[in-house]
Amino acid sequence: MAAARKVIITCAVTGSIHTPTMSPYLPLTPDQIAADAIAAAEAGAAILHLHARDPKDGRPSPDPAIFMEFLPRIKQSTDAVINVTTGGGSNMTVQERLAAPIVAKPEMCSLNMGSMNFGLYPLLNKYQAFQHDWEREHIERSRDFIFRNTFGDIEHILRELGEAHGTKFEFECYDVGHLYTLAHFLDRGLVKPPLFVQTIFGILGGIGADPENLLQMRRIADKLFGQDYHWSILAAGRHQMGFVTMGAIMGGNVRVGLEDSLYLGKGELAHSNADQVRRIRTILENLSLDVATPAETRQLLALKGADLTGF
């Protein structure tokens, strides 16, 4: 990577991990998701990573109709790159996870690079009661759940979205082996540079949020992809700000948002996604790092442009 660079800020607005009981500030309805995403873009996020929620009770939803209640509104109000999940939620089939992206044909989608255990169940120790019955079940389910992303699944998503619609990917790598899986698809020509490699730390079942792991993931990515990738970092929960700051100093891009952490600081809930974006932007600028605009991000990642989406 060149020394003179622009740092891309991704904001993951709601996700499918956290539940309504955990924070009153978690955006759940289409109105809330749209407002929070637009505010995050105004604060400096160049990429908005988006999931949908059932507006009745806040549970994760794959319903394209719900996505279409907020995707056009975000596009009309900001020039940020819209990145639609293909990870969905723990009870969704691959077909359900693809339903909204195939309709939306976005510039970017997330793509998880391997099947894994994805343990949320330790969160049960933090909450005595839940607002909705589904929340406890959702968290407990992760004790015996495998987040499925087989080689066949990955090939299917690459063809359905990449080849068919020109969508590029945020390649989500939760461990070192996921980097090698991505290299496998690069060698086969099913993905093409520049790659946007999101290394993820601190999820139970994936690589831990230890500084030496950050260094190792960087070393292996450099070995496998050379100059053909842009590196980004996210870390779960309390590790978020410190870890992404370390990554930025090492030449990476950063991801924040209420999908990854509900907090702004120790014991302090973030009141919005924009709070976290403003915090990391201030840190980056204090480190004399420049933040990438959406236009610069599109150029760096060779995206197709917002005018070629399905919304």
Automatic annotation (TrEMBL):
Q: Which cofactor does it need?
A: Zn(2+)
InterPro entries for this protein: Aldolase_TIM, BKACE
Question: Which Pfam families is this protein grouped with?
Answer: BKACE
Tell me the keywords, alphabetical order: Metal-binding, Transferase, Zinc
Say yes or no: keyword Transmembrane present.
no
Q: Which PANTHER family match?
A: 3-KETO-5-AMINOHEXANOATE CLEAVAGE ENZYME, 3-KETO-5-AMINOHEXANOATE CLEAVAGE ENZYME-RELATED
Q: What is the name attached to this protein's record?
A: 3-keto-5-aminohexanoate cleavage protein
Which organism encodes this protein?
Dongia soli
